[in-house]
Design brief:
This protein has two helices and five strands; from the N terminus they run H-E-E-H-E-E-E. It is an alpha+beta fold and 100 residues long. It starts with a helix and ends in a 9-residue tail after the last strand.
């Protein structure tokens, strides 16, 4: 019986892979405001994701604002954030239009 490497790779991938859900969040440290995407298991709340995450949280498509500065924000396709420096984190909600 011949074993095909490609079929084994597909089986291993399907066993270990968990579908992740993207969440746009705002994370604040003492000196930065970061808007970025984080990924967690489907249905997981942001608080659960942060409590269960390792020390450094990976984020993608980040925009970093320097608080108290008029400088242009910095963009990064990938970065990690040390949980010990997070002061506040909230899921970014869609902006509501004000009634006219």
């Amino acid at each position: 019986m011949e074993v095909h490497a490609e079929s084994i790779k597909k089986k291993v991938h399907s066993i270990n892979y968990k579908k992740k859900e993207k969440m746009r969040v705002i994370i604040c440290t003492e000196s930065k405001r970061i808007e970025a995407d984080v990924y967690g298991e489907r249905g997981m709340r942001l608080s659960d994701m942060l409590n269960n995450a390792p020390l450094f949280i990976p984020v993608t498509d980040a925009v970093v604002y320097d608080l108290g500065s008029d400088e242009e924000p910095t963009a990064s396709s990938f970065m990690t954030i040390n949980k010990n420096y997070i002061v506040m984190a909230v899921e970014r909600q869609k902006k509501l239009e004000r009634p006219s």
